[in-house]
Please model this.
Amino acid sequence: MTGYPSFRIKQWGYGAGVEPSYIFVTSMPLKSLWKADIDRWSNLNREGYQRITGESRFGPGQGSITRYLMNELGAFPTSVLINIRGKVDFSSIKQIAENIDYGTMTIPDDSKLIIIDGQHRLEALKRIRAKKPELENYPVPVSLMNLDDKFDEMVHFFIVNSRQKSIPTDLVYRQLQNFMEKAIIERRQWIKDTILGPKQERQALSATIVDFLDTESTNSPFRGRIQYVGQQREERHLVKDYYLARFLTKILSEKALRGLAPPKLANLYADYWSALQDLYPNCFKKPEEYSLLKTTGIATYTYLFPTVFAYCAADGKINKNEFSKYLEMLFEEIDSEELEPDFQKPLDEKWWSAAHGPAIARGTNEGAFEEIVKNMTKKIELAMKNKK
Model:
């Protein structure tokens, strides 16, 4: 059991269901933080909220934390935010103000320290300590909380990182998914009101659809083949969960798709990609040789989905065969000035080939995606006119 001279500060907000919080502000030597844990998100730990530390932050180059410690100022004036999972005792010595006490904070040995914010600073200090043993006594400014619920840690992490610095984008979808699943069901009305706007709700929903594609939908070509945040890439992986979620988020605002329950939408999207798998078999067998399952293809065919869906709905049949009927029109050769030259030829496997396809098939920005989808949409329209 270790005691630290600390300030205890009482803070509160006015959101629905919010309780007052106590923050303990002190300084702890680095060696007291050796065993502090980080709750990382993974497919097996879906209530985690951090990702693996970025190795680029610890190199010798300009801007790295280790260089800052060894060759520059080496001062960290902002505190690390830590939660104490377990009991914490505070013995007040003096009340300084209405909501501030000075005293001794005691952390039992069996309590667990969880780093909410500041993992890179602590990791850099630990790495440099091998060269500078005296750094084990480096005084780290620390703000500690005693939150009962792991979910509350995630809320604080999200707020600190989304409003002061950006959270890695691939992790945002997973945190919003947790907010959607828990915050609304539980007592956190203020989270629903202030964090879960329409876009955030779509992001949360898209993460749920990605999970369905990976685990539930039997017709999904992505079943068991999605690479999740924090996973090392394996040969079986076809696509990162972030890419699917990112592009699905954009189409969920489409009028044609509104009101569809997530399982229903996921199954239809799976049928759509199953049709594409039949049309482009080699792209799925050797994805590294084509851009169909890279950013460009995932984006453009996802953005095209509402258009093809709407045609199928107008026919009164929304299934894999009907999706194929319209997607096959992209394989036609259509000589029309309404199409850019690259799109007059068949959009077949050669078109998506990394070695032989047009440059635009490897474009990775939204402008390129929009240009491809515009021409795809026009090509389907022209193909339908030719059949009449």
